[in-house]
Amino acid sequence: MKVDGTPYRTIWLGADGTTVQAIDQTLLPHRFVVRDLRTMEDAEVAIRTMIVRGAPLIGAAAAYGMALAMAADPSDAMLERAYRLLLDSRPTAVNLRWALDDLRALLAPLPPARRREAAYRRAAEICDEDAEICRRIGENGLGLIRRLTPRDKGGRLNALTHCNAGWLATVDWGTALAPIYQAHNAGIPIHVWVDETRPRNQGASLTAWELSKHGVPHTVIADNAGGHLMQHDQVDFVITGTDRTTRGGDVCNKIGTYLKALAAHDNGVPFYVGLPYPTIDWTIVDGVREIPIEERSAREVSHMTGRTEDGELATVHVLPEGSNAANPGFDVTPARLVTALITERGVCDASEAGLLSLYPEQSRAA
Question: 142-365 architecture in CATH?
Fold first, then answer.
């Protein structure tokens, strides 16, 4: 995707062949800064502090973190240390574990002298694979969008999305936004209602920034406005991403997604989820009981950062003195509320049977 006419991915290998570079998403939309990741500790901090975020991008960053570790010390001890350090950086997104398992399985049998090259090669492959997967999700989602009848008398389709599941959450294209980008590129009149997504405002800060840079019409709304818009026929479909999807089709995504799904169900609005195969956790069925939910810092709720009138960034405290804050990062939307899952292999029902129809090789793990 492009930023002011220049094509970017969210993460890439620097010109020196060792340093990894990534867009610092904590500073968007006010500043566009590229960070250098020189060590596995840099990669861990980038994941933990959400310099990079979004399940697919977390996996890609973790893969490069393993490569940085092997560049410093390709020993067995470092391989295991890097695996554990990076695995503990974020608990909810299953792509993190998938990428680390992939790298460890590849590197462990190799002699130490071959691990650095193999790690960088595989991390680059994971990035390329993610970009292609997301492009295919976009194609498959575009097929659904073409079949929708706009409720808008002017013929414009109105989508609603929650959090950021665009190219900033992946290596390129995005998951939930990939179909929207492809629809826009195909000339389909489409407008996006962008939930602000408190407390970190990934919708207002990241999704709106992405859509603006690509020229997609959009409007930022308060998180609690979506149900009202659905009641008044101003939403044709809801589409979100997911950080972990169970074998049974339950979807874990940014906190507030469940409420959007309930409102969509009550108003007969299709609720779609875009996901790449590494986001599917085939080891669990019941998302509410089995998916670990990250509890993030209360400071994300009690403080807000924005740009002042003179262009400076400032952080302010918004709660009464002495008030506590809780900050669960994700919630789980039961499969019964999901109209369809959009993957790189096609579209399916949110169910074990639906997922296995696209991934029959996973039936062996049943």
Answer: 3-Layer(aba) Sandwich (3.40)
Q: How far is CA 177 from CA 168, 291, 348, in A?
A: 10, 24, 18
Going by C-alpha positions, the residue among 81, 85, 78 that lies closest to residue 62 is 85
b/e code 165-180 from CB counts within 10 Å (16+ = b): bbbbbbbbbbbbbbbb
CA distance 305 to 182: 32
With b for 16 or more beta-carbon neighbours within 10 A and e for fewer, the 338-352 pattern comes to bbbbbbbbbbbebbb
Question: How far is residue 216's CA from residue 159's CA, in Å, rounded to a whole number?
Answer: 11
Both tokens of residue 112? 């130490």
Contact between 168 and 23 (Cβ < 8 Å): yes
CA 330/CA 254 separation, integer angstroms: 4
Could you please state the CATH topology (level 3) that the domain comprising 2-131 is classified under.
Four Helix Bundle (Hemerythrin (Met), subunit A) (1.20.120)
Q: Which residues are annotated as a binding site for substrate?
A: 53-55, 90, 202, 253-254
Q: CA–CA distance from 149 to each of 112, 158, 270 (Å)?
A: 58, 10, 12
Do 103 and 79 form a contact (C-beta atoms < 8 A)? no
How do residues 324-349 score in pLDDT, each as one tens digit?
999 999 999 999 999 999 999 999 99
Residue spans per domain, the chain: 2-131, 142-365
Q: Which residue has the tokens 């044709």?
A: 236
The contacts of residue 104 (CB under 8 Å, 6+ apart) are 66, 79, 83
d(CA 105, CA 162): 35
- pLDDT category at 365 given cuts 50, 70, 90 is low
Count CA atoms closer than 13 A to 13's CA, side-chain side.
Answer: 18
Q: Which residues on adjacent β-strands are paired with residue 220?
A: 194
Q: Which residue has the tokens 């998916």?
A: 291
Average pLDDT over all residues of the chain: 96
Mapped onto helix, strand or coil, the DSSP state of residue 363 is helix
Whole-structure pTM value? 0.92
Task: Please state, in angstroms and rounded to a whole number, the distance separating the CA atoms of residues 248 and 350.
Answer: 7
Residues annotated catalytic, as ranges: 243
Q: In this predicted structure, what is the pLDDT of residue 206?
A: 96
